[in-house]
Specification:
By secondary structure, this protein is α+β, with helices and mostly antiparallel strands. It has helices at residues 12-20, 33-42; strands at 2-6, 26-30. The chain is flat and about 25 Å long.
Length: 45
């Protein structure tokens, strides 16, 4: 499963990434709104 997450820069990002990035999941965490929208537009989520 591909998971795209928008999250403000904070210490919790690493924990969230560890929790979601298990098995065959592909997780992308975007720390800024512009990067999130750009990633969303460039890929099939």
């Amino acid at each position: 499963m591909k998971i795209l997450v928008g999250w403000e820069p904070s210490p919790e990002i690493e924990t969230i990434e560890l929790m979601l990035n298990v098995g065959s999941h592909e997780v992308v965490i975007c720390r800024h709104a512009a990067v999130y929208i750009d990633t969303l537009n460039k890929s099939h989520w």
